[in-house]
Amino acid sequence: MAFSSSRGGVPPTPTLPTGVQIASFDTYLEAQRAVDLLSDKEFEVQHTTIVGTDLRMVERITGRLSYPRVALAGAMSGAWFGLFVGLLFGLLSEGSTLVMLLPALVIGAAFGILFALVSYAFTGGKRDFTSSSQVVAGRYGLLCEQSRVGEAMRLLGEAGIRTRVGTDPASPAPAVPPAAGHYGAQRAPQPGPVGAPPAEAPPQPPARSFTPLEDEHGNPRYGQRRPAAPQDGEERTS
User: Fold this and answer.
1) Residue 138, C-beta contacts closer than 8 angstroms, at least 6 positions apart
2) Could you tell me the pTM of the whole model?
3) How confident is the model at residue 13 (pLDDT cuts 50, 70, 90)?
4) Which of 12, 94, 124, 137 gets the highest tally of CB atoms within 10 A of its CB?
5) CATH topology of domain 20-58+136-158
6) Contact status, residue 34 vs residue 28, Cβ threshold 8 Å
7) Whole-number Å distance between alpha carbons of 166 and 148
8) Could you tell me which of 72, 62, 83 has the C-alpha nearest to residue 116?
9) CA dihedral 219, 220, 222, 223 (to 10 degrees)
């Protein structure tokens, strides 16, 4: 829902709602109860809007499909259609209405079973269950026009409903700085006695360059040490 130039009107095209959010609820029933309370207090509820955020499409599985269940559902729907046709012909004919209803019920149920079984057979078993779909929101916010915010908050507060201007369930929580002593937090320097020179930071050990591990003879622990090059006048030994 959204506000428009006319009170209580809905715009012909999808439009984002306007107004100030005065309350936030976990369920739709709580938001509905808040609007009902405003209506009971003779507040012009056409100035309010219920907005759901964090929408999810939920498909709840209601059962398993089988040929007997499909046939039963088809018989019921066909019987209702046959009842309507039989009642119509019974009112237009000169004979008894009950005489027309019974054949219409039987014929309608038979055609309903036939159509349901044929339709289920064409699915090839790709959807052997029944379900019901709903669009569910994570939070429900109650918006109100700027000129009526104070009155609406006062009425909700009298009814015991917590209100707060500008609360938005979709906005992220503010960042909280780490407390003292928390992991990763830096401790503030402690002030020293008056007149004492500032304490110097402890010297940091020099960074060690990477050197291969060597044994007590100076030979590296990995690979094989290359032989020394022959000096001038010395013969190379194989």
Assistant:
1) 52, 53, 54, 55, 56, 169
2) 0.52
3) confident
4) 137
5) Alpha-Beta Plaits (3.30.70)
6) no
7) 14
8) 72
9) -60
